[in-house]
Amino acid sequence: MADDTYNSVDGQAQLGAVVQARDIGAVHHHVHAAPPPPPAVPFQLPPAVAHFEDRREEQERILRELEGRSGGGGGPLVVALTGIGGVGKTALGFHVARRISDRFPDGVLYVDLDDLRRDGVVEVADALGELLSGLGVAPAWLHRSFAGRSKQYWTLTRGKRLLVVVDNARLGNEVLPLLPSSGDGLVIATSQGRLHDLDGVAALEVPMRPLAVEDAVRLLRHIVDDARLAEEPDAVVELARGCGGLPAALHVAGRWIRSHRRRSLSRLVAELSAELHEKGIPMVEAVWDAAYAGLGPEAARLYRLLPEFPAPVVTVPAAAALLGEDVPPAEDALDELEGAGLLESRPEGPRIHDLLRGHAERRSREEDPAGGGRQGARERLVRWYRRQASRADLLAAGPRMTFAEPGPDLPGVPDVEFGGKAEALRWLESQRLALYGCVRIAYECGMDEDAWALCEPLWTHFLDHPHYADITDAFGRGLAAAQRLEHLPATIRMRCQLARPLWEQERYEEAAEQLRHAVSAAGALGESEKERKLKASVVEFRGKLASVQGDWASAVADFESARRQHEAIGNAYGVLLQTHLLGCAALGAGEYGRAVELLTDAHRMAVEQDRVRMTARTGFELGRALRRAGRPAEAVALVRAALDNARERGATSDEARVLEELARLADEMGETEAAEGHRAAARLLAERCGGLPGADGGA
């Protein structure tokens, strides 16, 4: 949840509300809005493929195991589909899940662990976040810690008949935390190796071998509706055998056959066999080479460059950036690659199979041994994403303290057209894997300015979407890049930004270490207005770390210091923010009179500066302070306005938090029935939105 919690309130009306409201009854007609509808039952499987070889034996094993389980008493059954890459594990998992989905009326979830893998390791908390999102938990309700997310997941899956597909697991301990809590659930996990460490779990391992020749031939006949297959059965068998029984290879072979309708099948297979003998490569490699050879120049170049793209789904703008071309040539190249079977067509967009990614890398090294083309593509990609992220950030967060320029446009490659703040935020989330991947690429390629500059807009994204493995990795690399450049302001900024995800994961000492270095380095900053703001910001971050640890005395000292620095440079908003933080710290420390005094000042300043978001935020905190100070009647209108604002924005986590505060106010006023009504409404919101009972939206 972003720092600026409330952002759409009439500030002048709220300022006068402190003295206008005198009884709790004024609130009642505002608080009984209809709760949000329950989330739709998730079904996160892609549409069925046109051609699937049944794998009857494997399916029958799974169905027999399911029939023999009574469920309920123990944990869920785990079906582990194991086998080499390209053998069709994911396709079988999807096929079985579709076939039996009616047995799981509470939904079907899917997570690909390779999408979340960094340096070979999966941050399981992020995988839980993906599954919780599928269960309808909005980011604001998502608990920050792994333990909290585990409890949310167990709560939401208790007693449910839920099917979870976990793709590309490498270890059993990557799967175990993702098991639903109900014994009526089922988990289908795919892995290239055996999942030995599924201790204490009911598990069925289903090894998947390459398709037998007759099954491979049958799949080819499904893929290619061509009379030559019936006329030349021996050639079909040889081709199927040469593809090693791998569906990933057979699909490419089928598309290749269709693209050469005038040649006999025997001639085509003979050409592949000649390559097999001349070059010493497997026929499956020859099939891919043949498909590649049939591409036009732009499609072939894009194929060679696709391994440089750090996300699974290749968008048209990303393809244009890789090529350094406009959108139409990129669209044509993607269409051609899909037509050749070298890209998988998925609802979310085209993806390149890992086996074909390896082939594309080999072709790229052969045709560009010096790597100049690959390096150029990486640079274009990083700089295009840097520019788009900066533009999205400006729309989403407005002007704020940054130290990097947006970067020039990329000649020939158009910018993304953002329709407004909401669309910019959606783009940042949809391109998350590519953006974080570009930070890694930039750092590894020595593009240090681009590496840390990309981290600035990722800060805005992180505040609403806490993907901790991604953000700690990115900010760590951004820090290292800024240090290599000896860019002092960027180094300090990166340390502060890294500290927050660390303390949100309760890694307090690591966060404190980053801030110790930042405070020390800030002494060497100059006296420009931006550098003086940065000095104040560092101290503010340290105060926030003290606040989350309950060290209110240290927090107050830091916020007072930061406020003096903002006063010295005439930064009115900085003074407002530090006054607000001081009021919250006083409230936390139990100094209610002081909190009222400070928050009244902050609220007044917010109104005078026409800061709508801060007017709402300071008004809500002032209402809390007034109640604690024994003045609940004065708090009612402030809290009521916060409720109206939360509902206007559809911010259900804020709404629940405000309802809880209204319940406390009603208790203070002796309105027991009203208090219970507010609490019931808050509980219903939490239930509908996936929050843990008694938690304020996980914030």
Automatic annotation (TrEMBL):
<feature type="compositionally biased region" description="Basic and acidic residues">
    <location>
        <begin position="357"/>
        <end position="368"/>
    </location>
</feature>
<protein>
    <submittedName>
        <fullName>Regulator protein</fullName>
    </submittedName>
</protein>
<dbReference type="InterPro" id="IPR027417">
    <property type="entry name" value="P-loop_NTPase"/>
</dbReference>
<dbReference type="InterPro" id="IPR011990">
    <property type="entry name" value="TPR-like_helical_dom_sf"/>
</dbReference>
<dbReference type="GO" id="GO:0043531">
    <property type="term" value="F:ADP binding"/>
</dbReference>
<feature type="region of interest" description="Disordered">
    <location>
        <begin position="357"/>
        <end position="377"/>
    </location>
</feature>
